[in-house]
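step=encode ok
step=design start
structure_in=
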């Protein structure tokens, strides 16, 4: 396996995970990559690492350029094991290498691996010389773990951004001018919605720092490297991190005997009448991680569940738990659902939407099977509320 040159003396030496379909609950239909980068200079430096199953692939790619035992520095921008779990094997082969990491990076790596490796903790904005090149480290805590940092090489105009700006895409293409950009942006949106969304404020701080750096290439740790569409992905991050929602509704629902489904269609009708774009997401056909991609820019989040055993359907509960954790902000919520006798589901959904901090539209609840007249009323009443 070969390394891929990013710029003269800088190589991609990562691994391609063609089979990954579940990344802690996030469905990764296109697989992923674990990107690691090799800089050949007076101090030979490896930036990031790969998941342990892919150690041999990384080492083969490194060995196509240089004897891996010659590596002086390993920059560990992030502790999470998709970027660190090869370290024990790597440091057996390369025992004199020094790990450059943030203070929380050192703590996290010690907790994970229980090893007394050669750590050198770097401060935020500290620069080290590699010879002709240098690396400046910028701590970016909680984008998306406390240990995160990015590394910047001014001589090559490269930002090594780790998870930020990543996408879960497995491909033999490495660069954004070799792969359909609409797919890269869509996967970047999914990645943001499922991993980074809770940390908008921290992302904005990191973007402010990035705006002061001169780079033309973003070497991230998953998926495709940005070199042609750098401005576009930065602009998308500015938008997503500000929780800028547009006039769009996502209607998420499950149903037992189609009554809640009929109500979902009546809710949809109201948005369509007002020319507000709608996206229907039936929980038996859509994965919760794909729903997050859809709702990242949607102002209206409508959630429907019938009552089951005095509660809500498990599919709706799973979605609400997932969405609440990812904490979208500045949204308007609507709860709806049918019931037979207890009728608790709508109140439960509404409470969770309130706990998310959403502004709430009056909830909609109907017993047993809605009539045509009931459905028309749902549409008319909702139009009325939305127009106010
Ligand atoms: Fe790709 Fe937070 O690890």
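sequence_out=
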């Amino acid at each position: 396996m070969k390394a891929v040159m990013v710029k003269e003396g800088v190589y991609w030496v990562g691994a391609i995970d063609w089979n990954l379909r579940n990344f802690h609950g996030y469905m990764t239909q296109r697989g992923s990559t674990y990107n690691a980068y090799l800089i050949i200079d007076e101090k030979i430096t490896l930036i990031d690492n790969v998941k342990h199953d892919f150690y041999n692939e990384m080492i083969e790619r490194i060995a196509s350029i240089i004897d891996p035992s010659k590596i002086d520095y390993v920059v560990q921008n992030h502790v999470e094991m998709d970027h660190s779990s090869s370290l024990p094997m790597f440091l057996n082969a390369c025992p004199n290498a020094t790990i450059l990491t943030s203070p929380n990076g050192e703590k996290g790596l010690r907790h994970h691996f229980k090893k007394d490796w050669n750590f050198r903790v770097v401060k935020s904005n500290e620069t080290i010389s590699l010879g002709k090149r240098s690396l400046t480290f910028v701590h970016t805590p909680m984008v998306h773990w406390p240990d995160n940092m990015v590394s910047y090489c001014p001589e090559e105009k490269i930002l090594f951004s780790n998870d930020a700006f990543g996408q879960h895409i497995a491909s033999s293409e490495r660069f954004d001018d070799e792969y359909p950009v609409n797919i890269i942006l869509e996967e970047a949106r999914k990645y943001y919605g499922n991993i980074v969304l809770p940390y908008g404020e921290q992302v904005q701080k990191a973007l402010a720092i990035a705006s002061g750096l001169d780079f033309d290439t973003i070497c991230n740790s998953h998926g495709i490297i940005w070199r042609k569409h750098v401005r576009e992905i930065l602009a998308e991050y500015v938008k997503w991190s500000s929780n800028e929602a547009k006039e769009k509704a996502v209607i998420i629902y499950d149903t037992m005997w189609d009554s809640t489904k009929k109500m979902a269609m009546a809710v949809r009708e109201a948005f369509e009448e007002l020319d507000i774009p709608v996206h229907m997401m039936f929980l038996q056909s859509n994965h919760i991680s794909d729903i997050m991609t859809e709702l990242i820019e949607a102002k209206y989040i409508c959630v429907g569940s019938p009552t089951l055993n005095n509660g809500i359907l498990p599919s709706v509960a799973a979605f609400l738990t997932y969405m609440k954790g990812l904490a979208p902000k500045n949204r308007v919520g609507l709860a709806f659902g049918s019931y037979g006798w207890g009728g608790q589901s709508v109140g439960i959904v509404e409470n969770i939407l309130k706990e998310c901090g959403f502004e709430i539209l009056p909830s909609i609840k109907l017993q047993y099977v809605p009539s045509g007249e009931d459905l028309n009323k749902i549409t008319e009443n909702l139009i009325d509320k939305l127009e106010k």
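step=design ok
step=annotate ok -> The longest helix spans residues 181-196.
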